[in-house]
Design goal:
Layout: H1 2-19, E1 41-43, E2 48-50, H2 52-60, H3 62-65, E3 69-70, E4 90-92, E5 97-99, H4 101-105, E6 113-115, H5 116-173
Antiparallel strand pairs: 1-2, 1-3, 4-5, 4-6
């Protein structure tokens, strides 16, 4: 009876973990070993992303409940302000860099700061436009290469015809 219960619990655990296995493009749990599960939250204090199982201490332990949890993100340590250990939430247009809210009060007080998401969308749109322009330039250059190749072929044919005519004229003159 106990063996059956243990087996059914293992099957249940494996089926639920199969649904949450981290796929490419998703943030993986930083704590999982073996089968890495999809992260549910990232802790700004611990700088770690957690799956549902490993997140539980943050939801139950009184000391960890004070930690700030955010939607899962990769490379969380790179998204933290080195000076204040706070999440980079805004973009300073004057200095062209991401800053935390404390930086906006201290170092960037008079600067033009905007929400990070808005700036991201704007820069992404600009990058898309630039990419389209570059693709168009590439197409034009490929077309020019084809034209040059065609021109070379015509020149080769003309040269062969001139040589053939020249040989015929020379043969006739001989």
């Amino acid at each position: 009876m106990a063996a059956q219960y243990k087996q059914s619990a293992q099957q249940e655990a494996s089926s639920s973990s199969e649904q949450q296995v981290s796929k490419p493009g998703e943030v993986p749990c930083d704590v999982c070993t073996g089968t890495v599960l999809k992260a549910q939250k990232s802790c700004v204090v611990c700088l770690v992303s957690y799956c549902e199982t490993h997140l539980e201490p943050h939801l139950t332990s009184s000391g960890l409940k004070r930690h700030q949890l955010i939607n899962p993100v990769e490379n969380l340590d790179e998204r933290m302000c080195k000076k204040h250990d706070k999440l980079l939430e805004v973009f300073c247009k004057n200095d062209q860099m991401c800053v935390c809210m404390l930086c906006t009060i201290e170092d960037h007080k008079t600067h033009d700061v905007v929400p990070l998401k808005g700036e991201y969308k704007g820069k992404k749109a600009k990058l898309g436009k630039t990419e389209a322009e570059i693709q168009q330039m590439i197409q034009k250059r490929r077309q020019k290469i084809q034209e040059i190749k065609h021109s070379v072929e015509l020149s080769d044919k003309n040269a062969e015809r001139e040589i053939t005519e020249g040989v015929q004229v020379f043969t006739t003159l001989k």
